[in-house]
Structure prediction request, 140 residues.
Amino acid sequence: MAKELEDKLHQRILQLSKAGDESLAAGNYSQAIGQFRTAFALVPEPYQEWEASLWLLTALGEAYYFAGEYELARAALTSVMHVPGAIGNAFVHLRLGQVQFELGNTQQAADELVRAYMGGGKEIFEEEDGKYVTFLQAFL
Prediction:
């Protein structure tokens, strides 16, 4: 079970995360990355013990994904897998699968995309590029 941060620190991290979400939605990927990185830097070590690490590293991985920084996205999304609650999270598996696909790691992509499908059904792919579903169909 992951720990929760003390309230003042949690509020500061939420503020930065919300700003990162807004930047991401506006397509300002480098700004979002900076905001998520700043927020994550506030998480005490070991990061794996804190609930905030789950959503911060996922958001950071997503921002890197949209920025086309696939190696950095993979690093963030692989790190999040060491945080309680990440394994089995369909969205985390979706983004990691997409990143692995973009990096040409087809076996790892298939593993992660199947996990996303198992956890989130076909609905999790509805707003994603169709190439991922086409790829996934060979493994279902």
Summary: The chain has two domains: 1-69, 88-140. Residues 1-69 form a domain with the Methane Monooxygenase Hydroxylase; Chain G, domain 1 fold (CATH 1.20.58).
